[in-house]
Amino acid sequence: xxxxxxxxxxxxxxxxxxxxxxxxxxxxxxxxxxxxxxxxxxxxxxxxxxxxxxxxxxxxxxxxxxxxxxxxxxxxxxxxxxxxxxxxxxxxxxxxxxxxxxxxxxxxxxxxxxxxxxxxxxxxxxxxxxxxxxxxxxxx
Length: 140
Prior knowledge:
Blueprint: H1 6-20, E1 30-37, E2 45-47, H2 49-62, E3 67-76, E4 79-89, E5 103-115, E6 118-126, H3 128-134
């Protein structure tokens, strides 16, 4: 069985980014057994499509205008490397943190593994301390 070509990866990444941007109509772009690594979570991992959806919904409760922009991608052999930028305003409680009303802008990368045309694994890489600083939660 051959892997999807780069065009298929680009289309999948567009739909997957849509999930992060609040369009839950294409949740089936992630595998039922998806694993997502998120540095800001206490255990650092999300396992399964339902848990991933719950995480995204909680994220959007804290940051209703959460928006991911794909800055650059490199795809091949079932792997997509993606550079991204997120902008968001902390308007609701998130991860036990009351709203700060501050806007953040962070950049990061992701290594996404694709199996059978679905996202199987997403490993996010970004500086969580930068997020904390932009939210004004550090003491200087």
